[in-house]
Amino acid sequence: MGLILPSSFLFPTYSLFAVKHVSYHNLQPVSRALLALAGLKSGFLPNLLPLLASTENSLFACPHQEDISYGVVFFGDGPYNLLPGIEISKSLIYTPLILNPVTTSGAYVEGEPSAEYFINVTSIKINGKVVSGFNTSLLTIDENGYGGTKISSVNPYTVMETSIYNAFVDLFVKELAGVPRVTPVEPFGVCFNSTNLGSTRVGPPVPAIDLVLQSESVYWRIFGANSMVQVSNDVLCLGFVDNGQSPSSPRTNIVIGAHQIGGNLLQFDLSSSRLGFSSSLLFRQTTCANFNFTSIA
C-alpha cells in the first residue's frame, strides 16, 4: 500500500480517507514511528489515522527532496522497484532502532517513554576523518533521556548540540579549505562561494559526511545534495544548524532533519527493531519520483 507525498515529507492535508478518531496509543508500532518521524501525534492527521491503525510492522519511506522529487510512503514489505529496474530494498544498510526510555515530547505524562525512535550514532566522520573536540558521551542517551540521535522531518535541517556542531563545522571547513567562505546566511553558520564549485550526480563536490553507527563498517553517508543548501546563485551553505549548549538545549543532541533524509529510502522494520537506509538515491542515478508503482499493483 502506498502514499505519495507531493511536496514534502510532512503529510498532505487533503482528505484521503473518512475522518475517524483513532487514539495515538492504539496505533501499531510502525504507525507511531511514522507519526514520530513526521513530528506529529494524534489530532494532527485525522484523515490518515484510520489507515495507520491497521498497517503492518514495516514502513518504507522515501522523503521528498527539494527541487528533485516528491516523496512516497509504503506500508508493508517490498519488493520496491525504482525505474529503471532497481529493487532498492535489497541494498539497504541496517542499524538498530532505539527507544528513549524517557519521552522527548514537550507535553507528556511522567514516566512515559519516548514515541520517537533513535539510532546509535557512535561517531561522525568528514572525508574519512573523525570529528573530535567534543564529549562523545553526548552521542549516548543518558539515564535522564538526554542525548542521542533521532530522525525527524519536522526539523528542516539537522540540528546539533553546540559543542558537537562547532567541532563538526571546524573539520568540514578545514576539509573544504580550497573554497572561499562568505558571510553566513541564517539559520546556517557557515557558507561558501559556489561560483566555481561545480556539481556531481550526488550534488556539490564537497566532503562526504559519515554518521558511523554500530561499527566502523556501518555508516550513513551524506553527500553534497543532502549536506549543502543553495541559498542563492553563488552562495552554498552547510545545511546543519547549531541547536544550543547542553543541557539547556533540547534533550536530543543530534536531530537528523528533512534536508538530510530527502531522497534516501528508509525502512522502519519494527518487527526486528531496525532501520534500513540507502543513502542518497542519486548515487544510484535514481530518485524517489522513479518508483515503479505498476510493480506493486
Brief rundown of the structure:
The chain is of the alpha+beta class and 297 residues long.
Secondary-structure element string = EHHEEEEEEEEEEHEEEEHEEEEHEE
Indicate the CATH class: Mainly Beta
Distance between the termini: 9 Å
Number of separate domains? 1
In total, how many beta strands?
21
Give the DSSP E fraction (strand runs of 2 or more residues): 25-35%
Class based on secondary structure composition and strand pairing: alpha+beta
The CATH superfamily bears the name Acid Proteases
Describe this structure in words.
The protein is of the alpha+beta class. It contains 5 helices and 21 strands. Residues 1-28 and 38-50 have low confidence and may be disordered. The longest helix has 14 residues, at 162-175. InterPro entries: Aspartic_peptidase_A1 (IPR001461), Peptidase_aspartic_dom_sf (IPR021109), TAXi_C (IPR032799). Residues 116-278 form the Xylanase inhibitor C-terminal domain. One of its GO terms (cellular component) is extracellular region. Keywords: Secreted, Signal.
